[in-house]
Amino acid sequence: MKNGGLKLDERDLRILAILQTEGRITKTELAERVNLSPTPCWSRLKRLEKIGLIEGYRAKIALKRFGLTMVFMEAELESHRAADFARFEAEMRQIPEITGCWSVGGGIDYLIQVMVKDVDTYQRLVDRLLERGIGLKRYYTYVVTKAIKEDSPPPLERLRAAD
Predict the structure, then answer these.
(1) N or C: which end of the chain has fewer CB within 10 A?
(2) In this predicted model, what pLDDT tens digit does every residue of 134-159 receive, in sequence order?
(3) Distance CA 46, CA 28 (A)
(4) Nearest-CA neighbor of 60 among 117, 112, 116, 99?
């Protein structure tokens, strides 16, 4: 598979697919599953990390068990100059309750994911954002009432079919 100048063979793709769903797999088990001995498998894994295809290993925490509320916010900025976007994005990176922020095309500028204790805490966060003068013109709030599906991106096998 060629992707942006990257050359990946079937074993590389298999390693990525396995790690995507089983991040805690042992190196020995991973090597067995891709039909390699541990040392070459480890070398491939390190190469995939070095070239930036593996960004990290994470645990999926049951945040609901902590009583947290997920909120999505659509945000529109007052001005669309590069400096205004940069200031807003820098602010988003500094707020721990903001767990995701994406610049999007369409009628809004950003889609923001927020994890808070409750709706009151969320509103206090929004009030602080408005007071900071970071150019927030308008926002829309969507409180998550039930998670229907929370998966990782599609398995690489499905993405490869597009090649």
Answers:
(1) C
(2) 999 999 999 999 989 887 666 666 65
(3) 14
(4) 99
- Count CB-CB contacts under 10 A for residue 109: 21
* HSE toward the beta carbon, residue 111, CA cutoff 13 A: 7
CA distance 139 to 129: 11
Alpha-carbon distance of 101 to 104, in angstroms, equals 9
Residue 145 φ/ψ, nearest 5 degrees: -100, -25
Whether the CB-CB separation of 116 and 102 falls below 8 Å is answered with no
Q: Is residue 161 in a domain?
A: no
Q: Is the model's pTM score more than 0.85?
A: no
Residue 10 forms part of a structural domain? yes
With b meaning 16 or more CB within 10 Å and e meaning fewer, what string describes 66-84?
A: eebbbbebbbebeeeeeee
What letter represents residue 55's amino acid?
E
